[in-house]
């Protein structure tokens, strides 16, 4: 399934960083950051109640679009929570990630859940998709791995090569407009942090004393990279009324009140204008 190592680059990326060294260094920063948190990523950092709520939305969206038995790819699988859940629901999953630490966690999870025969696990960054062979019914990516892609058009071109006509992409992507985040940091006088999502291009975001190079998107900015080969089926806000996951302590103090906000997300998150905001957005595209 995997061919020898190569990195895909669009012409834009070649113009920005002709020999690729800057992007390579940034990818390694991001890899180190996620390796450093992989051992405890299922704790509050990677899977609290607010994350789980968004996770279920992606699970059910994929399940509504693709029949069980479909062969799907997880881009940026983290510790494999989604990959194993989809295997449990009857899908064949190829789980990929750029962090060797995360990949080790996914392998272990697949083994201990006794679903290893339904989950293939490959250490593979989204910038290396040219190494992958095969035809897939769909791909999903949860909680922002594609925000770490430094050359999204090149990733989109590989998705187009790998997903069969009629197949789907279901991605949850970190959005640009998160009212909760702006209010939270402005109240604390952290104005630069409040505006981090306004940055153009890849911006350094700290995690665990490391750097994740992150690009933020409006849904339409994100879709632009995929528009040549994929039709836009749908998109919606995730955690617009609910606070972002790092504010889970607020939720824990008054869960009933925040569950009401969660129900607003469910009811209104796909409305025009509202769907362009939120901590993340969930976007569904279909291969032409
Ligand atoms: C916020 S975590 C989400 C993990 C997982 N999808 C989940 O739902 O828990 C982001 C993941 O993206 C991975 N990642 C970062 N850059 C990547 C890249 N260039 N290619 C593939 N995966 C990447 C990280 O290693 C990390 O596992």
UniProtKB/TrEMBL annotation:
Q: Which GO terms describe its biological process?
A: methylation
Question: Do the record's keywords include Aminoacyl-tRNA synthetase?
Answer: no
Task: Mark the transmembrane ranges.
Answer: none
Compositionally biased tracts (Polar residues): 1-10
Start-end of Basic and acidic residues biased regions: 14-23
The record's section on InterPro entries has: Methyltransf_25, SAM-dependent_MTases_sf
What keywords are annotated for this sequence in UniProt?
A: Methyltransferase, Transferase
Top-level taxon:
Bacteria
Q: Which stretches does the entry tag as region Disordered? A: 1-23
Q: Does the keyword Transferase apply?
A: yes
Residue limits of the Methyltransferase domain?
72-167
Q: What GO molecular function annotations does the UniProt record carry, in alphabetical order?
A: methyltransferase activity
- Report the protein name in the record: Class I SAM-dependent methyltransferase
Organism of provenance: Luteibacter anthropi
